[in-house]
């Protein structure tokens, strides 16, 4: 399998010559490396079933279901992301997935099942660039800090993980590069060495810096798109403003504990 790569700006890459339902082992290693560099990979024209999509995810590691989400009928390891049946548009802020776990998913992927006639794009941030472009004084405030991430918006069982600490400056295990590891303001509960007001101010500054327009990729969904990204160097959010039509995505997350942080 020969994989063509077209870099996107300010992050991400469009792949060519890839079938997610028939990857060879060496192709998976190549995709891991591409994800570590580009953060987001877009693979178009993938007319695959949920079983084939799940097999694609498993080639990267152990698939984990996010407790509290709605499972895909007949494929409970995946969950449904949709606006169908809702009286108001879903809300989304820039975040990384399930950062409240001690070992969060390294990868998340979406399969486009139904694409709206208008809107419903997904936005991604380049967290390598976010760290590299920090002013010196702000980078000094980030160095050696740990953030306590907590769960929000999900009804978890009593024995589920709901809190974890992670470095604010996260070294990617495959590239050696440092990224800003953030999630929503509400999920970043505490910052080591700072009082609550100072912690909140720092997180707000970093989120504003990370999500500036020049640092954001907008992915406009097409039927049969598969998009996978590396949570260790990317934040994401869905843009639900002005959506016309049904938006249905099937989502899976992959834990790769051997290469986290």
Automatic annotation (TrEMBL):
Family stated for the protein in its record: Belongs to the TfdA dioxygenase family.
Kindly give the InterPro entries that the UniProt entry links to this protein: TauD-like_sf, TauD/TfdA-like, TfdA_dioxygenase
Q: Which cofactor does it need?
A: Fe(2+)
Q: Which residues cross the membrane?
A: none
Among Pfam families, the record links this protein to: TauD
- Any keyword Transmembrane helix? no
Q: Which UniProt keywords apply?
A: Dioxygenase, Iron, Metal-binding, Oxidoreductase
* SUPFAM superfamilies associated with the record: Clavaminate synthase-like
Task: Extract one GO molecular function annotation from the record.
Answer: metal ion binding
Where is the TauD/TfdA-like domain positioned along the sequence? 5-252
- Work out whether the entry's keyword set contains Metal-binding: yes
Name-wise, this protein is Putative taurine catabolism dioxygenase
Source organism (scientific name): Mycolicibacterium chubuense (strain NBB4) (Mycobacterium chubuense)
């Amino acid at each position: 399998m020969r994989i063509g790569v077209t870099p996107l700006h300010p992050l991400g890459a469009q792949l060519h010559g890839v079938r997610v339902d028939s990857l060879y082992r060496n192709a998976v290693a190549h995709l891991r490396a591409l994800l570590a560099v580009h953060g987001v990979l877009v693979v178009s024209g993938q007319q695959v079933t949920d079983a084939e999509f799940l097999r694609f995810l498993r080639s990267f590691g152990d698939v984990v279901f996010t407790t509290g989400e709605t499972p895909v009928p007949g494929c409970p390891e995946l969950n449904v992301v949709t606006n169908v049946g809702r009286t108001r548009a879903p809300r989304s802020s820039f975040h990384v997935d399930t950062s409240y776990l001690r070992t969060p998913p390294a990868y998340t992927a979406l399969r486009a099942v139904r694409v709206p006639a208008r809107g419903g794009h997904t936005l991604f941030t380049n967290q390598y660039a976010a760290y590299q472009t920090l002013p010196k004084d702000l980078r000094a405030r980030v160095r050696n800090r740990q953030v306590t991430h907590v769960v929000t918006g999900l009804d978890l069982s009593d024995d589920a993980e709901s809190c974890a600490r992670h470095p604010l400056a996260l070294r990617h295990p495959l590239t050696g590069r440092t990224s800003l590891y953030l999630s929503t303001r509400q999920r970043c509960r505490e910052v080591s060495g700072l009082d609550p007001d100072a912690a909140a101010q720092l997180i707000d500054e970093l989120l504003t810096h990370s999500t500036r327009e020049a640092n954001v990729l907008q992915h406009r969904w097409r039927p049969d798109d598969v998009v996978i990204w590396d949570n260790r160097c990317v934040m994401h959010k869905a843009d639900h403003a002005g959506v016309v039509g049904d938006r249905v995505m099937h989502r899976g997350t992959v834990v790769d504990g051997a290469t986290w942080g």
